[in-house]
Amino acid sequence: MPSRLTVVLVSLLLALPVVIFWLWLVILPARVAILCPVGCRCDIGGYNVVCDNTSLSAVPLIHLTDVRELWFIDNNITLLQKDSFVSLTDLDRLDVRRCGLRRIELGAFNGLTNLIELSIWYNEISEIKPGTFEIIISLESLHLDYNRIKHVDKDTFSGLLRLKYLFLSQNKLQFLHPDTFSGLPNLEHLYFTTIPAFIFQLTAISLNHILYYILIYHVAT
User: Fold this and answer.
1) pTM
2) 36-216, what's its fold?
3) 105-114, pLDDT tens digit by residue?
Protein backbone atom coordinates (compact mmCIF):
# COMPACT_ATOMS: atom_id res chain seq x y z
CA MET A 1 0.00 0.00 0.00
CA PRO A 2 1.58 3.34 -1.01
CA SER A 3 2.60 5.68 1.75
CA ARG A 4 0.91 9.04 2.27
CA LEU A 5 4.07 10.81 1.05
CA THR A 6 4.02 8.82 -2.17
CA VAL A 7 0.37 9.71 -2.74
CA VAL A 8 1.11 13.38 -2.17
CA LEU A 9 4.07 13.33 -4.58
CA VAL A 10 2.07 11.58 -7.30
CA SER A 11 -0.78 14.05 -6.84
CA LEU A 12 1.62 16.96 -7.21
CA LEU A 13 3.17 15.47 -10.33
CA LEU A 14 -0.26 14.95 -11.88
CA ALA A 15 -1.28 18.50 -11.01
CA LEU A 16 1.96 20.10 -12.29
CA PRO A 17 0.89 20.36 -15.98
CA VAL A 18 -2.39 21.99 -14.93
CA VAL A 19 -0.54 24.50 -12.73
CA ILE A 20 1.93 25.32 -15.50
CA PHE A 21 -0.90 25.80 -18.00
CA TRP A 22 -2.76 28.05 -15.57
CA LEU A 23 0.37 30.15 -14.98
CA TRP A 24 0.86 30.41 -18.74
CA LEU A 25 -2.71 31.69 -19.15
CA VAL A 26 -2.14 34.33 -16.50
CA ILE A 27 1.46 35.38 -17.13
CA LEU A 28 1.56 35.46 -20.95
CA PRO A 29 -1.29 37.95 -21.46
CA ALA A 30 0.14 40.16 -18.72
CA ARG A 31 3.56 40.11 -20.38
CA VAL A 32 2.09 40.90 -23.80
CA ALA A 33 0.03 43.77 -22.37
CA ILE A 34 3.16 45.29 -20.84
CA LEU A 35 5.28 44.93 -23.98
CA CYS A 36 2.61 45.95 -26.50
CA PRO A 37 3.52 49.38 -28.01
CA VAL A 38 1.52 52.31 -26.65
CA GLY A 39 -1.63 52.91 -28.68
CA CYS A 40 -1.43 49.53 -30.42
CA ARG A 41 -3.45 46.35 -29.96
CA CYS A 42 -1.76 42.98 -29.47
CA ASP A 43 -3.39 39.56 -29.43
CA ILE A 44 -3.04 37.28 -26.41
CA GLY A 45 0.10 35.58 -27.70
CA GLY A 46 1.79 38.69 -29.06
CA TYR A 47 1.70 37.36 -32.60
CA ASN A 48 -0.38 40.14 -34.17
CA VAL A 49 0.26 43.82 -33.52
CA VAL A 50 -2.17 46.39 -34.93
CA CYS A 51 -1.33 50.11 -34.77
CA ASP A 52 -4.20 51.93 -36.50
CA ASN A 53 -4.99 55.63 -36.24
CA THR A 54 -2.41 56.17 -33.51
CA SER A 55 -0.74 59.28 -35.04
CA LEU A 56 2.62 57.50 -34.97
CA SER A 57 5.40 59.48 -36.69
CA ALA A 58 7.91 56.62 -36.55
CA VAL A 59 7.95 52.87 -36.11
CA PRO A 60 7.91 52.24 -32.34
CA LEU A 61 10.38 49.97 -30.61
CA ILE A 62 8.67 46.58 -30.34
CA HIS A 63 9.94 44.33 -27.55
CA LEU A 64 7.69 41.39 -28.41
CA THR A 65 9.82 38.73 -30.09
CA ASP A 66 7.23 36.41 -31.67
CA VAL A 67 5.32 38.90 -33.82
CA ARG A 68 4.03 37.38 -37.06
CA GLU A 69 1.86 40.23 -38.40
CA LEU A 70 2.43 43.96 -37.95
CA TRP A 71 -0.01 46.61 -39.17
CA PHE A 72 0.50 50.39 -39.40
CA ILE A 73 -2.58 51.96 -41.00
CA ASP A 74 -3.54 55.65 -41.07
CA ASN A 75 -0.54 57.06 -39.24
CA ASN A 76 2.07 59.75 -39.97
CA ILE A 77 5.12 57.61 -40.67
CA THR A 78 6.87 59.50 -43.49
CA LEU A 79 10.20 57.66 -43.19
CA LEU A 80 11.20 54.04 -42.63
CA GLN A 81 14.65 54.24 -41.06
CA LYS A 82 17.40 51.65 -41.24
CA ASP A 83 16.79 48.69 -38.88
CA SER A 84 13.19 49.73 -38.18
CA PHE A 85 12.18 46.07 -37.83
CA VAL A 86 15.51 44.37 -37.13
CA SER A 87 14.30 42.54 -34.00
CA LEU A 88 11.21 41.04 -35.70
CA THR A 89 12.90 38.07 -37.33
CA ASP A 90 9.72 35.92 -37.32
CA LEU A 91 7.53 38.54 -39.03
CA ASP A 92 5.76 37.19 -42.11
CA ARG A 93 3.39 40.07 -42.91
CA LEU A 94 4.00 43.84 -42.72
CA ASP A 95 1.42 46.45 -43.73
CA VAL A 96 2.30 50.17 -43.78
CA ARG A 97 -0.77 51.68 -45.42
CA ARG A 98 -2.01 55.28 -45.71
CA CYS A 99 0.79 56.62 -43.52
CA GLY A 100 2.08 59.36 -45.84
CA LEU A 101 5.29 57.34 -46.27
CA ARG A 102 7.73 59.18 -48.55
CA ARG A 103 11.12 57.57 -48.13
CA ILE A 104 12.59 54.17 -47.29
CA GLU A 105 16.21 54.06 -46.15
CA LEU A 106 18.46 51.25 -47.33
CA GLY A 107 18.45 48.63 -44.58
CA ALA A 108 14.96 49.52 -43.37
CA PHE A 109 13.94 45.88 -43.74
CA ASN A 110 17.03 44.36 -42.13
CA GLY A 111 16.15 41.22 -40.18
CA LEU A 112 12.97 40.42 -42.12
CA THR A 113 14.30 37.25 -43.74
CA ASN A 114 11.01 35.39 -43.18
CA LEU A 115 8.66 38.07 -44.50
CA ILE A 116 6.16 36.76 -47.07
CA GLU A 117 3.94 39.77 -47.74
CA LEU A 118 4.88 43.46 -47.71
CA SER A 119 2.23 46.13 -48.29
CA ILE A 120 3.30 49.76 -48.53
CA TRP A 121 0.48 51.01 -50.71
CA TYR A 122 -1.55 54.25 -50.55
CA ASN A 123 1.52 56.32 -49.63
CA GLU A 124 3.64 59.12 -51.12
CA ILE A 125 6.70 57.16 -52.25
CA SER A 126 8.27 58.60 -55.41
CA GLU A 127 11.53 56.64 -55.46
CA ILE A 128 12.67 53.15 -54.52
CA LYS A 129 16.44 52.83 -54.17
CA PRO A 130 18.02 49.74 -55.76
CA GLY A 131 18.65 47.10 -53.09
CA THR A 132 15.85 48.28 -50.82
CA PHE A 133 14.21 44.83 -50.75
CA GLU A 134 17.18 42.51 -51.31
CA ILE A 135 17.33 41.33 -47.67
CA ILE A 136 13.71 40.06 -47.80
CA ILE A 137 14.65 36.76 -49.43
CA SER A 138 11.33 35.01 -48.62
CA LEU A 139 9.03 37.71 -49.99
CA GLU A 140 6.24 36.42 -52.25
CA SER A 141 3.89 39.42 -52.50
CA LEU A 142 4.85 43.10 -52.78
CA HIS A 143 2.24 45.91 -52.87
CA LEU A 144 3.56 49.22 -54.16
CA ASP A 145 0.33 50.41 -55.73
CA TYR A 146 -1.18 53.86 -55.14
CA ASN A 147 2.12 55.67 -54.67
CA ARG A 148 4.00 58.26 -56.75
CA ILE A 149 6.77 56.07 -58.14
CA LYS A 150 8.21 57.54 -61.34
CA HIS A 151 11.23 55.34 -62.08
CA VAL A 152 11.89 51.62 -61.66
CA ASP A 153 15.57 50.78 -62.12
CA LYS A 154 17.28 47.51 -62.95
CA ASP A 155 18.09 46.55 -59.34
CA THR A 156 14.93 47.87 -57.68
CA PHE A 157 13.73 44.32 -56.99
CA SER A 158 17.10 42.60 -56.66
CA GLY A 159 17.18 39.61 -54.32
CA LEU A 160 13.46 38.82 -54.54
CA LEU A 161 13.93 35.34 -55.99
CA ARG A 162 10.65 34.03 -54.54
CA LEU A 163 8.45 36.97 -55.50
CA LYS A 164 5.19 35.88 -57.15
CA TYR A 165 2.95 38.95 -57.03
CA LEU A 166 4.05 42.51 -57.78
CA PHE A 167 1.55 45.38 -57.63
CA LEU A 168 2.49 48.66 -59.35
CA SER A 169 -0.94 50.03 -60.21
CA GLN A 170 -1.78 53.72 -59.78
CA ASN A 171 1.73 55.17 -59.82
CA LYS A 172 3.35 57.83 -62.02
CA LEU A 173 5.77 55.57 -63.89
CA GLN A 174 7.81 57.33 -66.55
CA PHE A 175 10.75 54.96 -66.90
CA LEU A 176 11.07 51.20 -66.60
CA HIS A 177 14.48 49.59 -67.11
CA PRO A 178 14.26 46.72 -69.63
CA ASP A 179 15.87 44.29 -67.15
CA THR A 180 13.70 45.29 -64.20
CA PHE A 181 11.98 41.89 -63.93
CA SER A 182 14.74 39.64 -65.29
CA GLY A 183 15.91 38.71 -61.78
CA LEU A 184 12.45 37.54 -60.64
CA PRO A 185 12.30 33.90 -61.79
CA ASN A 186 9.09 33.04 -59.88
CA LEU A 187 7.04 36.11 -60.78
CA GLU A 188 3.53 35.03 -61.78
CA HIS A 189 1.46 38.23 -61.74
CA LEU A 190 2.52 41.77 -62.56
CA TYR A 191 -0.24 44.28 -61.96
CA PHE A 192 -0.63 47.59 -63.79
CA THR A 193 -3.90 49.48 -63.90
CA THR A 194 -3.28 49.98 -67.61
CA ILE A 195 -0.30 49.37 -69.87
CA PRO A 196 1.87 52.43 -69.17
CA ALA A 197 2.07 54.83 -72.09
CA PHE A 198 5.80 55.31 -71.56
CA ILE A 199 6.66 51.84 -72.88
CA PHE A 200 6.02 53.06 -76.41
CA GLN A 201 8.83 55.60 -76.00
CA LEU A 202 11.46 52.94 -75.31
CA THR A 203 13.84 51.39 -77.81
CA ALA A 204 12.73 48.41 -79.85
CA ILE A 205 14.77 46.03 -77.69
CA SER A 206 13.32 47.43 -74.47
CA LEU A 207 9.81 47.40 -75.91
CA ASN A 208 10.06 43.73 -76.87
CA HIS A 209 11.38 42.84 -73.44
CA ILE A 210 8.54 44.61 -71.63
CA LEU A 211 5.91 43.22 -73.98
CA TYR A 212 7.24 39.76 -73.17
CA TYR A 213 6.34 40.29 -69.53
CA ILE A 214 3.04 41.93 -70.32
CA LEU A 215 2.00 38.95 -72.44
CA ILE A 216 3.21 36.36 -69.95
CA TYR A 217 1.87 37.96 -66.78
CA HIS A 218 -1.54 39.24 -65.83
CA VAL A 219 -2.01 42.99 -66.33
CA ALA A 220 -5.04 44.31 -64.47
CA THR A 221 -7.25 46.69 -66.43
Assistant:
1) 0.76
2) 3.80.10
3) 999 999 999 9
